Each structure stands twice: as structure tokens, then as C-alpha cells.
Amino acid sequence: MQFDLFYELAVPGYTGVEDAAEQAVFHDTLAELALADELGFGAAWLVEHHFMPEYSHSSAPDLFLAAAAQRTTRLRLGLGIVPLPYHHPVLVAERIATLDILSRGRVELGIGRGFSPLEHRVFAAPMADSRAQMGEALDLLRACLGPDPISHAGTFYAVPEAVTVHPRPVQRPHPPLWLAAVSPESFELAAGLGLGVLAGPFKPWFMVREDLRRYRRAWQAAGHAAPPRAAMTLGILCLEDGRRARQLGRQCMPWFYRLLLQHTRPVLAELYAGYEYYRRLGRLAPLMEKTLSLKTLELLGLVIVGDPAHCRRKLAALTGAGVDRVLCAVGAGGLPHGIVCESLELLAREVLPHFEGGA
Question: In whole angstroms, what separates CA 101 from the centre of its chain?
């Protein structure tokens, strides 16, 4: 199992003046990625979100990862994810290829359709069309990353005459592709398209476990030559003193998930065409909000907090269920830089070596 890092570039309100805190988060995260590169973590993934204060200030992740590329040599750089309906696929291809060149071929490209009604309204991307638009965008994106001139006449996009898209990515035919999956049907879609699957961070583990079984069955049925790729995002905090870890986790982990529920509430509470499964998940939201605590999050399998032995035991269960990569949100964006670095070093020393593909 490979261990990656996952960042929302969260800026908790309790850390100080927002502008100063925001700038510190950006620079501290770059320092953490440089450390993770030295420690042997596999990749660092950044989301793309807009208009989500405190929870996520990661609105231009490709720019951020370009900076990270110049501070690292081995760490792979993941976009988790690019919401394709918000962007023209030609522009996505150009920026991804640029990042792949700057990083010397270290990009991992996650795609999805986005879940925020506000984002969809601002970027003029109707939610009812998002699944079909994403499918067309993916086909065009793949063509743009290839060597041949492209033209396209579709429902959502038009390239009226043949053009050759530059630059070309280092990785051929293109960087590894992943799909953000929430509904069981999305896991099957990812398998059919030959994409890796990105699960989490707000769906309980007992549900994700069944989704991964469905994904692997669908992958096998599709007859792909390559092995399936399944990743799951978790909030994690590993410290030598498990009691200290839990004391810190009682603040940062519920804070993160409380804001996550706040920002997903619109799509969880209302019925949007194409997002019916989110409405079903929304039935769990009031219960989670009412009982939101570190213990509840642990019972749902959304976080792992404790000493190295505890973390190893919990992570071993994921390996047995077919998780190939764990995307670790260390401290869930709610802890000081020094504690995050402390946890990264301990994970690298006491946890990763116990799993195949670790440091």
C-alpha cells in the first residue's frame, strides 16, 4: 500500500488573522511537501474548490503544484480533482502537460464533475448536464494530450478546425487518470473507463468497502490488462503519545468534517438531477452533525488517530479490502505546521515500512 498526502489548503478561523494565516498555510504546505519528498511518501494531492472559506483555499492547485515541483524531486503531484465541467478541456490539457514537464513527469490527474451548486452556477455549468459534460470533456482531454491534431464537434465543446495542442506531456500517452467516485455507479464507471478511483473523504468506510468490491468486479469484467487502482482519503494523526494525538484530534478532526458537511449541505439537502445519490447520503448528515466527534468519525472509518501501533492496525484493514493508496490528510488541515511535520516523520519511520510500497 502506498501512502500519499492530501491537502485542502484549509485555513481554520481559530489560527489568527485570515490573510496572514492563508499565506502561512501555503508556504507551510510547500515545506511539508519538501519534507514528504525526503521521507518517501508517494504523492501529494490537492483539491480544487472555490468559495469555501476556511475549509479549502485551494482554487488554483496546478499553480501550487508547479511551485511544489521545484521543491521536490521524487514526490508525485496529484490533482484531486480537476472538475472538468468548470474548464475547457483544451486548457486543462495545456496546463496538465505544462505541469508534467515542470515536474519531469510526476503528475497524477484526477477528474470529476464537482459537487457544489454555487460553483456550477458561477462557472455556468448546469449540474443536470455535469455527468454527460464530464464524459465528453474526458474524451476531448485524452485526444488533446495525444500527438495528433484534433477537431471536435460535440454537445458541450467545439474545436471547429484541426489544431495541435502544445506542450506534450512527458508521460505517454498521458499522466495516470483517476476519477472521483461517490455513488456506486461512479465506481463502475471508473472501472469501465480504465481509470483509478478516488474515494472519500466523507463517505463512511463500510460503504466504500462495498464500492471497492464493485469496482474490482467491474474492472475484471472490462478485461483491462493493467491492474485496478483504488485510493481512499482519510484524516490521520499519528504521534508517539496516543493520548496527545487524541487530545489534538478532538478539535481538528470534527472541525474539518463539520465544515465539509456545511459545504456539501446544499447538494445533500436538495434533489439535483444527476446527484440523486448525494441526496441519499444526505440522510446520514443530520445524524453525523448531531453526534460529530472524534469517536463518531473513528466508528465511521473516516479518521485514524493514535500512536504508531494503533495506526498500523487500522491501516492494515484497508489493505485487506483492496485499498492501494491512502491519501493522508494529516491533522485534517487544522493543526500547526510543526505538529504536521512531527506526524509525517513518525509515519515515515514507524508506519510506512510495515506496508508494501512504504518508505
Answer: 22
Question: What are the grid coordinates assigned to 227, written together?
Answer: 491492474
Q: Cα–Cα distance between 357 and 359 in angstroms, integer?
A: 7
- Look at residue 326 and give its three-state secondary structure: strand
Identity of the amino acid at 346: L
Cβ atoms of 43 and 76 within 8 Å: the answer is: yes
Side chain identity, residue 187: F
Residue boundaries of the structural domains of the chain: 2-354
Q: Which among 253, 344, 324 has a CA at the least distance from the CA of 293?
A: 253
CA dihedral 237, 235, 76, 184 (to 10 degrees): 150
- Find where cell 491512502 sits: 326
d(CA 88, CA 133): 11
CATH superfamily, domain at 2-354 = Luciferase-like domain (3.20.20.30)
Q: Between 337-346 and 18-39, two packed helices, what is the crossing angle to 10 degrees?
A: 20
Contact 184, 216 (CB under 8 A): no
Helix H or strand E encompassing 238: strand 230-238
Tens digit of each residue's pLDDT (9 = 90 or more) over 276-286 = 666 566 666 66
One-letter amino acid identity for 60?
A: A
CB-based burial label for 279 (10 Å; 0-12, 13-18, 19+): middle
- Poorest-pLDDT segment among 93-102, 241-250, 258-267: 258-267
Mean pLDDT of 250-278: 78
Please, is 336 exposed, middle or buried when counting C-beta atoms within 10 Å of its C-beta (0-12, 13-18, 19+)? Answer: middle
Question: pTM of the prediction?
Answer: 0.94
